[in-house]
Structures are given as C-alpha cells and as structure tokens.
Amino acid sequence: MKVIETERLILRWLSNDDADFILSLLNEPSWLRFIGDKGVRTLEDAEDYISTGPMDMYTRLGFGLYLIELKDERIPIGICGLIKRDSLEDVDIGFAMLSSFQSKGYGYEAASATLTYGIEQLSLKRIVAITSMDNHASSKLLEKIGMKFEGNILLDNDSEELKLYAYDC
C-alpha cells in the first residue's frame, strides 16, 4: 500500500515480498554500526522481522516503517517511517538507506515527507528521533528537516547513550 509519494520516491508498506531487500539492508555495514545487529541472516529471518515489526505496527497503529523505492524504476533503496517504541513517550522517525543510495538527497526527501505525513495526516503533535552519538550524517539530516537536539538519553535496557531530537508542532 502506497503511503507517501514525493518527486522521486514512493514510500509504501513493507510485505514479505521485500524479504530479499530487508536481508541486504539489515546487514549493511552502516546499519550494523549505527542501528545494531538484528540477527537477520536468512530470508526467513527477514520475513519474521517484517511480520513482527512493520506489519504488526501497521495493524496496531496504522503506521510503521515504510519501504522507500525509486518512483520510476521501482527499485527499493531504504526504509523510512514512524515508529512507536515502548521506551519512548513519543512516536519517532527512523530511516536507513543502502550505502549505494546515500548522499543523493533521498534520505532528506523521504524523512521530510514522513515528518509532514506524521503532522498532517496522523495529527501528531510531537515527533522525536534518536541516533547514535557518532552518527553525524543522521544528526545533520534530522536538523535539516527541522528537528532540534534536546539532549542525550538512555533507552530502557540499553547501555548506549543516544542523541534525542524532537519536532514540536
């Protein structure tokens, strides 16, 4: 199901048909470094990740992480969306791209459209984002879409301090 369309991108619900792509994305060096190892090593693992993560969130909340694909070519390049974590009070925006599609403006295009969607379509009053301390590219992108750095936080059952950004509507 298509959720957001921009000049160059379509953001749509993930399905088990996207397992090959998710397997690749979740094993990218940048994913493993900045987001963490989710233990996705097989197509079955990728299908489970999609079913218990994004698809479950679509059912429960009506939103989640979306597949980003190039509009004209229909090539999957990343994920971006809104997530409700138990350890954060507010909905947060998350994104990740295959390394071959980074630094081309796609992350900004997807994240800014997702932020607008959260405000205008979901009527969210506050959206947050978290990044690892050394993920300077994500921090820069969050600031570029209008989010403000609020401080450092620790999520429940986590020992790594993270940067917290917020957008108040």
From TrEMBL:
One of its GO terms (molecular function) is acyltransferase activity, transferring groups other than amino-acyl groups. InterPro entries: Acyl_CoA_acyltransferase, GNAT_dom, N-acetyltransferase. Residues 9-167 form the N-acetyltransferase domain. Coiled coil: none annotated. Keywords: Transferase. Pfam families: Acetyltransf_3. This is N-acetyltransferase.
